[in-house]
Amino acid sequence: MKQGNESSITDFILLGLFSDSRHPGLLVTIILFVLGVAITGNSVLALLVWHDAHLHTPMYFLLSQLSLMDLTLISTTVPKMVTDFFSGQSFISHIGCGAQLFLYLMLGVAECVLLTLMAFDRYLAICYPLRYPVIMTPRVCLQMAIGSWVGGMLISLMHTVYAMNFSTCDSREVHHFFCEVMALLKLSCEDTSTYEKVVLASGIVFLLIPFGLILTSYILIFLTVLHMNAPEGRNKALATCSSHLSVVSLYFGPAMIIYTTPGSSLPADVDQCLFVFDVIITPMLNPLIYSLRNKEVLEALRNILWRKLIIKLKEEDMPICNH
């Protein structure tokens, strides 16, 4: 009752993950831990790429953009969800809901485009190493990054404006932990079947087609790698590509099930679990996959930590020497 009295008639109520949970305290603790690991991992990875000169390459530049997207994605949904849990008030304003929907869709589309461009980058680097520096110039890398962000913004803006303009019935309860487009459509009194087909078509364009391009790129890469004579070069190429393929599988797998499946065919709990994996778990795993399986990233991290340790030891020894 308190929640209903304090919210306006235009507010939505996010039922979230905790309403049906038997152990909400444990669940929110796990989510807070995942949030902390995701923020730390993505922030450290992005800062390493910007700080270490050895990582100033097209591949790592694009990887830093992926880290920024993951950082923003998990920050769009989880802090609101955790705040609602501790405050006991799970309503969100109409504007706040639209902003959350816009950011989620923008980052989702941007990551699809960026992961496709990262696969293209690896294809050029391994299959055409001599032409690679000529094609992948800093300007081209910047254009790729800007194209990913701007493309995501434009597509998201169109979907957000359209979805938020549907009239809703008496119920304002969103059966989700954030304002997700298909969950919002279920509240509408209007016929949304045409727009649901548009969402399905968007899923095909921004999920299935990029996924097909990525798979094609890696098939060509593996065929090239098999003909490499140097074992060291072959192993390095396979390690880098396997990391990228792992991230692609984590991101595209749940997203394709969600957005290329007819709206009502998935059970609510399955739908929620897929979104948890896509929006919360994947942003945490991405930096771990790229850092733990990448010698250059680990070496850059060791160098920075070693330099910090030396500086600290020198500062501690300074007063003794002066004395």
From TrEMBL:
Q: What residue stretches are annotated with the G-protein coupled receptors family 1 profile domain?
A: 41-290
Q: Which Pfam families does this entry report, sorted A to Z?
A: 7tm_4 (PF13853)
- What is a single cellular component term in the Gene Ontology annotation? plasma membrane
Q: Which domain of life is it from?
A: Eukaryota
CDD domains assigned = 7tmA_OR2T-like
- Entry keyword set: Cell membrane, G-protein coupled receptor, Membrane, Olfaction, Receptor, Sensory transduction, Transducer, Transmembrane, Transmembrane helix
- What membrane topology does the UniProt entry give? Multi-pass membrane protein
Q: What is its main location?
A: membrane
Provide the protein's localization.
Cell membrane
Q: Does the keyword Iron apply?
A: no
GO MF annotations, alphabetized = G protein-coupled receptor activity; olfactory receptor activity
Entry's transmembrane regions: 26-48, 60-81, 101-120, 140-162, 200-225, 237-259, 274-292
Q: By its UniProt entry, which PANTHER family does this protein fall under? A: OLFACTORY RECEPTOR (PTHR26453)
* Its job: Putative odorant or sperm cell receptor.
Task: Tell me its family.
Answer: Belongs to the G-protein coupled receptor 1 family.
Q: What is this protein called?
A: Olfactory receptor
